[in-house]
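tmp note - Folliculin
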Amino acid sequence: MWPFLIDNLKEVIKELQDYAERKYNIEESECPQRTMRLTTANSSSGSCHNSTKQVRALSSITNEKHVFVRIHMWLVWILSAGARHFIEILPMSLLDKELDYDLEHRIETEEGFTLVNTKLPAHLNLNTTEPQTTSEFPEISDSPVILILRNLKKILGKDQFRQLLYSSLIGIQILVRGPKPQRIESLHGLSSLVPRACRRVHVQATEYMEPNKYNFIGVDTSVAVPLPSANVCRLDIIANEHKIENITSHIVKWTGSLPMKLPTLLIKLEKSLEDEKLGNSVLKSHFIALQKEWANIAKVVHAMKGRGHRGDLPGLMLSLGAGPHDKKLLDAWSMGLPSNPA
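out:
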């Protein structure tokens, strides 16, 4: 579909250029530009000079009275012709498990794939709700991930939540210390922001473990933990029975500092969470899409590094919508990829 659009749009552009060139040649024969420049060098007046100062419409430049009608007809034809030959390929995960395929009329593509249709209408399963229980969170509550994150942001405030968000995305260890239900919920929400291959989660450790073992770790309040540092972002949750009036129940302790320019993904996540018009289900789908987008960027950058093209990385990252401020995030997300993708 894309090559078809490109080729035909090039034809439209070429035809418009041909019209304009013919019109230019006619005007050049009547009033040569070189002669006009020599004339206007000595005098600012002149019919040719004055005429060139006027703003000209596309119909005048091309000498085609109905040029916009022609452009409209070209574009309509391109879209209609493309639509007739456009084939929509649905992800198999969205299709019913039991389908009656029409294998007699399959289509072999140039890429080596086989396209098949179903004899009966295929019903899409657009319910993207994933099971709440995962291997890392066997006792997770029914609270959606987005609701957990929004509650954390509301309790912590923008600044402390941003520290927690930044640390989660770039691979700094998140240490949650507090009662079991709130601890598991917080770890579930924060760890869901990074790809599964980048998560090393322990929700109920009996002792503190180093960041190289787990980047998301939860401990009880009785477990000894290290002092706050730049490599560990600690979230202390105070139990309800120990909570003091007018004192927040969640406290972030981190001695690191945020960069002047935050990662692009972090900014997008913050803006989405702040938009109250977006429901939890919509935000969840949006977060999944963002995560896949940046995971793919990390894969491409990682592959280029593995092939020895480090000098081309700045230009590549720019073309992918990333910048130097995203480097730590991309490096952290590359940890779950093969060491030598080449």
